[in-house]
TrEMBL record:
<dbReference type="InterPro" id="IPR036291">
    <property type="entry name" value="NAD(P)-bd_dom_sf"/>
</dbReference>
<dbReference type="InterPro" id="IPR006140">
    <property type="entry name" value="D-isomer_DH_NAD-bd"/>
</dbReference>
<feature type="domain" description="D-isomer specific 2-hydroxyacid dehydrogenase catalytic">
    <location>
        <begin position="36"/>
        <end position="317"/>
    </location>
</feature>
<keyword id="KW-0560">Oxidoreductase</keyword>
<keyword id="KW-0520">NAD</keyword>
<comment type="similarity">
    <text>Belongs to the D-isomer specific 2-hydroxyacid dehydrogenase family.</text>
</comment>
<dbReference type="Pfam" id="PF02826">
    <property type="entry name" value="2-Hacid_dh_C"/>
</dbReference>
<protein>
    <submittedName>
        <fullName>D-2-hydroxyacid dehydrogenase</fullName>
    </submittedName>
</protein>
<dbReference type="InterPro" id="IPR006139">
    <property type="entry name" value="D-isomer_2_OHA_DH_cat_dom"/>
</dbReference>
<dbReference type="Pfam" id="PF00389">
    <property type="entry name" value="2-Hacid_dh"/>
</dbReference>
<feature type="domain" description="D-isomer specific 2-hydroxyacid dehydrogenase NAD-binding">
    <location>
        <begin position="114"/>
        <end position="286"/>
    </location>
</feature>
Length: 341
């Protein structure tokens, strides 16, 4: 009987100051090394795989090895991959995967919470409570209002399901039109967004940051929205021209907004957004629940088990599109390196 071919232990880097919990099974089958940003460039050439645990890092483009070297697989502990789409990685043969599956429902719940809070004026109630003011008011119903959700991926779909459960009428906008979608019915094409925008009571941005979506929500977009509409962003900060959003709030074009993402994070203390009328500033926490770090580690550990045994990886990013397509076929996974490779 032929003896199975021996394999060397793969070297897996974790971009983090300390090893995350939940990676014991990975460590049992890999040379698992945590590296801070300062050591990343020195360690990357010899790495077989990279876990970008500090997903807000800006260090990867400068540290990426030249000449076609570097890890054959990069996984990020985030849903968005815009920070990984620098030319050297995008144009390489390296597979990129994300942490799809962890964030969808928590973000959808956060969006639903903001819709209810804005409609019921919770902020006004808390403010009056602090001033010991008893002032009866009427608020709005959310049932039968109309929402448009931009982003046809799993986060946008979870938002649609959750808002529909509250009685809202909801349309979903993706990259291209799909009729008869088994989950949401019709997915509208990106080209239809402007028409839907003009009718919406609620506009929810849950799309990835791409060349098409950067600066999408500008003065023209806010002017197209119906007066008194509300805007919620759980996508990426650069999709919104913040000075234009501020003007729309100050002039009463929008009745309110909730932002979980910003162009600069943390939001500077001198940003005028802190004092914008009817705006909730959330510190990029809509997806972060008490178990989220364990859940992120579990996604990577599962993909690592697939990777080292040559099975297809989950959540493979289409690097040309900049996200994981909803109906994409899973490509073959790279296998762990063989002895002497």
């Amino acid at each position: 009987m032929t003896k199975p071919r021996s394999r060397r232990v793969p070297r897996v880097l974790v971009l983090a100051d300390r090893r995350p919990d939940g990676l014991d099974e990975v460590a049992a089958h890999a040379d698992l090394v945590c590296v801070p940003e300062a050591r990343l460039a020195a360690e990357l050439p010899a790495a077989d795989a990279l876990l970008v645990w500090e997903f807000g890092t800006e260090a990867l483009p400068a540290a990426w090895p030249g000449g076609g070297g570097g890890p054959r697989w990069v996984h990020t502990a985030s849903a968005g991959v815009d920070r990984l789409m620098f030319p050297a990685l995008r144009d390489s043969d390296t597979l990129v995967t994300n942490s799809r599956g962890v964030f969808e429902q928590p973000i959808a719940e956060w969006v639903a919470g903001q819709v209810i809070a804005l409609a019921k004026d919770f902020a006004g109630t808390y403010e009056r409570q602090r001033g010991r003011v008893w002032q009866h008011r009427v608020t709005e119903r959310v049932a039968d209002t109309y929402a448009v959700v931009l982003g046809g991926g799993p986060i946008g779909r979870a938002v649609v399901r959750t808002l529909r459960a509250l009685g809202l009428r909801v349309d979903l906008v993706g990259r291209s039109r799909r009729d008869g979608d088994p989950e949401v019915g019709t997915v509208h094409a990106f080209g239809e967004f402007g028409e839907l925008l003009a009718r919406a009571d609620w506009v929810v941005c849950a799309a990835p940051l791409t060349a098409e979506t950067e600066d999408l929500f500008d003065a023209a977009a806010f002017a197209r929205m119906k007066r008194g509409a509300r805007f919620v962003n759980v996508g990426r900060g650069p999709m919104v021209v913040e000075k234009d959003l501020l003007a729309a709030l100050e002039h009463g074009r929008l009745a309110g907004a909730a932002l979980d993402v910003f162009r600069q994070e943390p939001l500077p203390a001198d940003s005028p957004l802190w004092d914008a009328p009817n705006l909730l500033v959330s510190p990029h926490m809509s997806a972060d629940t008490v178990s989220w770090l364990d859940d992120l580690a579990a996604v990577f550990a599962d993909n690592f088990a697939r990777w080292r045994t040559g099975r297809p990886l989950r959540n493979v990013v289409d690097k040309k599109l900049g996200y994981v397509p909803v109906a994409a076929a899973e490509p073959s996974a790279p296998t762990a390196p063989e002895e002497g490779a």
